[in-house]
Design brief:
Strand content: 5-15%
Largest sheet: 3 strands, parallel
Shape: rod-shaped
Strand order of the largest sheet: 1-3-5
Number of domains: 2
Order of helices and strands: HHEHEHEEEHE
Oligomer: single chain
Amino acid sequence: MPQINDIKRKNKNTPKSNQVGRGNGSKGTYSGRGSKGQLARSGGSLNPTFEGGQLRLVKKLPHMRGFTNIFKKHYVSLNLKDLFSLFDNDSITMLDFKNKGIIKNKEMIKILGDGDVSKPINLEVNAISSSAKSKIEKAGGEVKLIG
């Protein structure tokens, strides 16, 4: 005849867990905890990193290295050849870059000099390389730097 504990258990292959601390019928007086001390008390569990009073390894290791500069400027770099493949108009402003999805809210744009300028163009950007600026001005264009 199956016992009550066997009916409660779903898998009969796993052994039943011992209920301790409920009188002498369950592992006797100390309930398998030994005598006295921190681990014998209820709620007396230790931090998993505890090393018996020695300085813990996790406290010896560095917590965080460096810092995050909240004033860092995030630039999106764009070459001249990409600029002309994205835009057809003669003047390009920061709003055009935002509308195309090239830059997000606080990002800035920098134009780099890889590519050729075939027609005059007016640019409004945050930064530009010297080679790109000379190519645009040589073609009759104009560059305006904004903050």
